[in-house]
Amino acid sequence: MAEYIESLERLAEQFARLEGVGKKSAMRMAFSVLELERDDVESFAKALLDAKEKIHLCPICQNLTDREQCFVCEDPQRDRSTICVVSDPKTMLAMEKVREYRGVYHVLHGVISPMNGVTPDKLKIKELLARVGEGNVEEIIVATDPTVEGEATALYLAKLLRPLGVRVTRLAYGVPVGADLEYADEVTLCRALEGRRDV
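and the corresponding structure tokens:
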């Protein structure tokens, strides 16, 4: 049916451009928009435009914000001697939900991936080095994903940062809570052993 309604197809195509949205989900979203009142559609469109116009990078940590600085950098209670380096703003929000980390962040906006055309100069690495160069930073926690690209990025950062006299650490990875050890792969078990701690 939708193939015959050109404007509905165009709307679905726009939703399909979003990361993680497939054709079927995009079409469901398009139909959902049609069910909204006109005022709600206008509010939706305005929210999209406002987000695009007002959200920018925090000049300190490179996180997304609609203020002068992001909410973490604005907080005077945060420990500025520890910087947790993450690949994207979504990872930073996940770390914040834990409510255990009291340091600050630095968002790279990607990981090194030559196959995808992402080289170190395309990430926010020089901004991180500038922050460390200002002094007062004692530890950098590299919290990139445990993928080939995430590991490559962590090693690259460690190579750049160690000569600056800061401690470079990596998040411990291992067996998830509730998992059976017999189903864990060798790399996961190895990481779990390396990251073991006293009980």
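(Above: one complete record from the training split.) The radius of gyration is 21 Å.
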